[in-house]
Amino acid sequence: YVLKIDISKYFYNINHEILLDMVKEKIKDKEVISFLSYILDSTNLEYVNNDIRRVVSSEKFRVSKKNISEFEKKKLYSELDSIPTYKSGYGLPIGNYSSQILAVFYLNKVDHFIKEVLGCKYYIRYMDDLVIMDTDKEKLKSFFSKVSEYISSFDLVVNKKSGIYKLKEGINFLGYNFKVSKGMVIRYRSDTIKRVKKKLKCLRVYDSEMYNKSYASYKGYFIMCNTSVRDKYLSE
Question: With the C-alpha atoms ordered 113, 119, 124, 129, is the resulting torsion angle positive or negative?
């Protein structure tokens, strides 16, 4: 069985105070701490949320002018409305290189809790995507409860889509589905394919230069898939 845990709006909900206290345990240089604090405080500036709202509003206007059905427009509006804004004292600035490192570091104690306290043998994490494997489903249920409670101590909430699945269904991780069937079969998840196609279709119409760059980037991701699967996706 596979226990898949995802954290709700992870980047936007990282607590600045908790993060800085954790960093101070590892780094004693006051100038470094001050600089990191300065970076984190940038999410508290009013113009950041104003820019997010402005972009969302602009995109909604662009959607309203598209020659698509009302149903499709409502779906796009819903996606835009789900884009979060920053709460004071929370969140990492998107696009900042330090944010990638800090996002990995913030759950470092969770890694140690899972491996050393719970004794999980098969565990992997990337950012806020956690995967635990075990043959005992009841044990995974217990792990789920304990890990969720421990994660809450970092002022985070486990996403409702987290849960336990049969290993034979494959493991959804980083946009791929990993499945053991006469060897390892790596496929792209169907929702990932839909998202990629929708983005490329839009770029092909509005920005040909960005379309070519994005296509090349996605092609690199598809190369990870098994040959027959990769060729099918790329041909489409």
Answer: negative
